[in-house]
Design goal:
By secondary structure, this protein is an alpha/beta fold. It contains nine helices and eight strands. The chain has two domains: about 130 residues; about 140 residues, ABC-type transport auxiliary lipoprotein component (Rossmann fold), CATH 3.40.50. Strands 3, 4, 5, 6, 7 and 8 form a six-stranded mixed β-sheet that branches. Strands 1-2 form a two-stranded antiparallel sheet. The N and C termini lie far apart (about 110 Å).
Length: about 290
């Protein structure tokens, strides 16, 4: 048994096995980088591993049966013991193994640092992405929660001329609401496209992309006018707020300004706005 071990050592079989294993590991590590880079099939690494395992016994057999001499490759039994240079070949194999170890360790250190940096970069990106997603979700909720459509107020009097007054009230409310920061207000053209139509609040809100709908009506009796406004939650179809305003029909523009300012002021708390976000209604009216 000891003679077999000595012969394996003399023929550099152990060194060939060591070098082969290290070389195979380096090839697989390089392949792990190059395969995705060149968009090679996923089975490429498996093929390299299969070829490496298949060639390992042949490499050992080759090291056992052949010897490299100054005259070329010869069968081991053809070389005289005095002419054998297996010691020199062993020294060259030692250098080759050391070189492969240096390459392998260098790659291992580089990969460790690269993966650590990539992990840190990914964490930063993920953290930034999560912050952006959370901010986006918060902004989305804020927009949806503070969005409103003002539908044309319905003229319920027998006087057709009151159509101008009801439209004026609607436009004035739109104008005041549109000046509130962070409040999404549907445009006049979109809101007035539902004028004179039978509507379902939830469907209208869905089409306009809002959570709240303000609708109202106007009635006239003699020189008095009654304006009713109501705020509806589109999701539940529930009345969040409702109010009736009675005025003497003296100055139409003053009434429009007065009623619109009163309605917007009442909507302030229902839509969740702070005083700091509200405009001075008197300044707006003036």
């Amino acid at each position: 048994m000891s003679s077999l071990f000595s012969e394996l050592k003399r023929r550099n079989v152990f060194k060939v096995a060591t070098g082969y294993i290290i070389l195979g590991w380096v090839v697989l590590q390089v392949g792990d980088v190059l395969v995705p880079l060149f968009e090679l099939p996923d089975w490429t690494l498996k093929l390299l591993l299969f070829i490496g395992l298949l060639g390992f016994p042949f490499a050992l057999l080759f090291a056992w049966a052949f010897e490299l001499t100054p005259d070329g490759l010869k069968r081991d039994h053809e070389v005289n013991p005095e002419e054998s240079i297996t010691n020199k070949t062993g020294q060259k194999l030692n250098l080759a193994i050391m070189g492969l170890l240096v390459v392998g360790m260098s790659y291992f250190i580089w990969e460790s640092r690269f993966m650590e940096q990539q992990s840190d970069s990914t964490d930063v990106v993920d953290s930034g992405s999560n912050d952006q997603l959370e901010q986006s979700a918060t902004d989305s909720q804020a927009i949806v929660g503070t969005s409103i459509a003002v539908l044309p107020f319905v003229n319920m009097s027998s006087d057709p001329e009151q159509e101008y007054f009801s439209d004026g009230i609607t436009e004035e409310i739109l104008n005041v609401l549109a000046q509130i920061p962070k409040l999404k207000v549907t445009s006049r053209s979109s809101a007035f496209s539902f004028k004179g139509k039978e509507i379902i609040v939830s469907e209208v809100a869905k089409k306009l992309g809002v959570k709240n709908v303000l609708e109202g009506s106007i009635r006239k009796s003699g020189n008095r006018i009654r304006i009713t406004a109501q705020l509806i939650d589109a999701d539940t179809d529930a009345h969040l707020w409702s109010e009736t305003y009675d005025r003497e029909l003296n100055d139409i523009f003053a009434i429009q300004d007065d009623i619109s300012a009163a309605i917007v002021s009442a909507l302030k708390d229902k839509l969740g706005f702070n005083e700091s976000l509200m405009l001075d209604n008197k300044a707006v009216v003036n």
